[in-house]
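Build the 3D complex.
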Amino acid sequence: MVPESYYVGLSAILFTIGVVGVVVRRNPLVMFMSIELMLNAANLALVAFGRRVGHADGQAVVFFVMAVAAAEAAVGLAIIVTIFRLRRRLSMDDLSLMRW
Amino acid sequence: MAHAAFFIVAAIAVVSALGLVLRRNAIHGALFLVVNLGSIAVLYQTLGAEFLAWAQVIVYAGAIMVLFVFAIMVLIPGKEETGPDPRRAWRLLALPAGALLFLQLIFVVGGARGGAGSGAPPVGGVESIAGLLFTRYLFPFELTSVLLLAAMVGVLLLARRRV
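Done.
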């Protein structure tokens, strides 16, 4: 049986790739997909830790994370479409209205 | 055998995640993300979480990615990100920062030695998950339905065409 630490290590790698993707890319859609990548990495770690502890509770939490991710993707994409409709451009660097 | 399968699937997951970040075309990134989600579903299966594996395929690779691909097709963003990057030096800082974050993650998670380690893997079928969702996690479960309803109303309000 593959030890849980391998899964957790893979989860750390995927999470780091997601963080770098959010920082490096300028396209908000790709940034959103990187956020989904980070959520999935956290889910993988939750399931792996759940197997180590011997409960199914971790999997129940992952279920909730999936539901929240679905809601987040829907709202975020609606916001991006609205911004695009207002500005006709799609680059995160232009959006500085709410920066102090 | 199980180790070989794990390393193959893990390599697919890492390469597809890198493809998402490195490819300039957003639609290629979306397809790479589908591959990544599928490989994570396989990993759930190897961890004994059968219900989550199929929920991952249906909810993520099905519903959410269809939404993403639809948004990419509507917005046609393949053209920007081609011009010169005014903040290139700052963005290059992301690589050492990411490496630092990775080391921190390994340090923190690797130090988490706790857990009883009962040995017996939890059953991940529909039965055990449903038993938890409808007893111990009943309140968050109901809150999830409210959250999805709120998201739906919010999206309708945001996407409404101004008259």
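Residues 128-163 of chain B form one domain.
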